[in-house]
C-alpha cells in the first residue's frame, strides 16, 4: 500500500487542514470555494469559471470513475468543458485510487499531475465547508513544505476573464442564423448546445467590438472572477441593446447584461455551486432544479425600469435571471447547458433560437 505525501491547506484566517497528496506536488493558491454536486469532476475542473479557485468537493468519494481522454471534434472538446484543468487545486475527503468507467482513460490523480494541479484527500470537507459557510469564501493555499512556499492569491482583484477568453475570432458551423458568442471563458457545452440548433457561431474575445459584425443574435458566456473587470464587454452590450436583435446570457453573461441595463452586482458570501439549486420562473408557478457555479449575483432591486427578474433562487431569494420588458433580451444566472448537472432548463436555448 502506497503512502501519499502529506500536504496542507492553509486558509486566510489561519486554519490549517492536513491531508495527503494525490495530484501534482506543487504549491498553489486561490479562492477556496465549495461545491455540493455529487458527480461531474471532469466537467467542473475544466470549467473556466473556476479559474483562480481551489475547489472543495463535498461529496465524500471522488475519483472512482476516472477521467475521459482530452479529444476534440472541430475544435470542441468531446468530454471536457475547455482545453485543460482550470482550478488551482482540488480538495476532497476520500480519493478512490481505483477507477472504473467505460470512458475512463486515466485516473483523476494522473490527470491532476499532468496539469500541474495539486489535489488533497483526507480532509474533513464537512468541517471545511461549514467554515466557508460561516466565514464566507476565503483565500487559501496548498503547501508541501513551509507556509511561505507561496503567497495567498485573490483572483477577484485581477481580470480573470481576459485570461480565460479566446484570443481571436473562431467560427463554428454553417447554420442559417448567425450568432455572436462573447467568450468570457466559455464552457464547451454552451458551444455544443448552440450548434445543435441551425446556427453559425462566431466566437469572439471578451473585449471584441462585435457590433461591427453582421449577426442575428448575441450570446454572452459564463466566465471566471469579478464582472467589474468586463467594462469593455458591458459597453459593447449596451451598444447592441440599442437595436432589437435577441440577446441572451449565461451566468457571467447574466451579470454583464444586467450591468449593461444599469443594475449592480455584489459578491455572495459563499456562492452557489451545486446541481440542485431550485429556481422559480417569475410570474409563474414553474420551478426548476439547476446546475450552478457562481460567487457574484445581480441585485434584484437595482434592475432598471425596463427590466424584471426572470428567475429567483428559492433557497435565498437571489436573482437567477433577468428579462427585458419589451425587447428580446434575457439571461440566466444558472447553467442551462448543465455539464454537469440537470438538463431541465435546456429549453432556454430554444427560447433564444426562436427569437432569432
Ligand atoms: N459561472 C460563471 O459564469 C460565474 C460568473 C462569476 N465569475 C461569478 O462567480 O459569479
UniProtKB/TrEMBL annotation:
<comment type="subunit">
    <text>Composed of two chains; the small (or glutamine) chain promotes the hydrolysis of glutamine to ammonia, which is used by the large (or ammonia) chain to synthesize carbamoyl phosphate. Tetramer of heterodimers (alpha,beta)4.</text>
</comment>
<feature type="active site">
    <location>
        <position position="337"/>
    </location>
</feature>
<comment type="pathway">
    <text>Pyrimidine metabolism; UMP biosynthesis via de novo pathway; (S)-dihydroorotate from bicarbonate: step 1/3.</text>
</comment>
<feature type="binding site">
    <location>
        <position position="293"/>
    </location>
    <ligand>
        <name>L-glutamine</name>
    </ligand>
</feature>
<feature type="region of interest" description="CPSase">
    <location>
        <begin position="1"/>
        <end position="177"/>
    </location>
</feature>
<dbReference type="InterPro" id="IPR017926">
    <property type="entry name" value="GATASE"/>
</dbReference>
<dbReference type="GO" id="GO:0006526">
    <property type="term" value="P:L-arginine biosynthetic process"/>
</dbReference>
<keyword id="KW-0028">Amino-acid biosynthesis</keyword>
<dbReference type="InterPro" id="IPR002474">
    <property type="entry name" value="CarbamoylP_synth_ssu_N"/>
</dbReference>
<dbReference type="Pfam" id="PF00988">
    <property type="entry name" value="CPSase_sm_chain"/>
</dbReference>
<feature type="binding site">
    <location>
        <position position="255"/>
    </location>
    <ligand>
        <name>L-glutamine</name>
    </ligand>
</feature>
<feature type="active site" description="Nucleophile">
    <location>
        <position position="251"/>
    </location>
</feature>
<keyword id="KW-0315">Glutamine amidotransferase</keyword>
<protein>
    <recommendedName>
        <fullName>Carbamoyl phosphate synthase small chain</fullName>
        <ecNumber>6.3.5.5</ecNumber>
    </recommendedName>
</protein>
<feature type="binding site">
    <location>
        <position position="295"/>
    </location>
    <ligand>
        <name>L-glutamine</name>
    </ligand>
</feature>
<comment type="pathway">
    <text>Amino-acid biosynthesis; L-arginine biosynthesis; carbamoyl phosphate from bicarbonate: step 1/1.</text>
</comment>
<feature type="binding site">
    <location>
        <position position="296"/>
    </location>
    <ligand>
        <name>L-glutamine</name>
    </ligand>
</feature>
<dbReference type="InterPro" id="IPR050472">
    <property type="entry name" value="Anth_synth/Amidotransfase"/>
</dbReference>
<dbReference type="InterPro" id="IPR006274">
    <property type="entry name" value="CarbamoylP_synth_ssu"/>
</dbReference>
<feature type="active site">
    <location>
        <position position="335"/>
    </location>
</feature>
<dbReference type="GO" id="GO:0004359">
    <property type="term" value="F:glutaminase activity"/>
</dbReference>
<comment type="function">
    <text>Small subunit of the glutamine-dependent carbamoyl phosphate synthetase (CPSase). CPSase catalyzes the formation of carbamoyl phosphate from the ammonia moiety of glutamine, carbonate, and phosphate donated by ATP, constituting the first step of 2 biosynthetic pathways, one leading to arginine and/or urea and the other to pyrimidine nucleotides. The small subunit (glutamine amidotransferase) binds and cleaves glutamine to supply the large subunit with the substrate ammonia.</text>
</comment>
<feature type="domain" description="Carbamoyl-phosphate synthase small subunit N-terminal">
    <location>
        <begin position="5"/>
        <end position="143"/>
    </location>
</feature>
<dbReference type="InterPro" id="IPR036480">
    <property type="entry name" value="CarbP_synth_ssu_N_sf"/>
</dbReference>
<dbReference type="GO" id="GO:0004088">
    <property type="term" value="F:carbamoyl-phosphate synthase (glutamine-hydrolyzing) activity"/>
</dbReference>
<dbReference type="Pfam" id="PF00117">
    <property type="entry name" value="GATase"/>
</dbReference>
<dbReference type="InterPro" id="IPR029062">
    <property type="entry name" value="Class_I_gatase-like"/>
</dbReference>
<dbReference type="GO" id="GO:0006207">
    <property type="term" value="P:'de novo' pyrimidine nucleobase biosynthetic process"/>
</dbReference>
<keyword id="KW-0436">Ligase</keyword>
<keyword id="KW-0665">Pyrimidine biosynthesis</keyword>
<keyword id="KW-0067">ATP-binding</keyword>
<feature type="binding site">
    <location>
        <position position="49"/>
    </location>
    <ligand>
        <name>L-glutamine</name>
    </ligand>
</feature>
<dbReference type="InterPro" id="IPR035686">
    <property type="entry name" value="CPSase_GATase1"/>
</dbReference>
<dbReference type="GO" id="GO:0005524">
    <property type="term" value="F:ATP binding"/>
</dbReference>
<dbReference type="GO" id="GO:0044205">
    <property type="term" value="P:'de novo' UMP biosynthetic process"/>
</dbReference>
<dbReference type="GO" id="GO:0006541">
    <property type="term" value="P:glutamine metabolic process"/>
</dbReference>
<keyword id="KW-0055">Arginine biosynthesis</keyword>
<feature type="binding site">
    <location>
        <position position="225"/>
    </location>
    <ligand>
        <name>L-glutamine</name>
    </ligand>
</feature>
<feature type="binding site">
    <location>
        <position position="223"/>
    </location>
    <ligand>
        <name>L-glutamine</name>
    </ligand>
</feature>
<feature type="binding site">
    <location>
        <position position="252"/>
    </location>
    <ligand>
        <name>L-glutamine</name>
    </ligand>
</feature>
<comment type="similarity">
    <text>Belongs to the CarA family.</text>
</comment>
<keyword id="KW-0547">Nucleotide-binding</keyword>
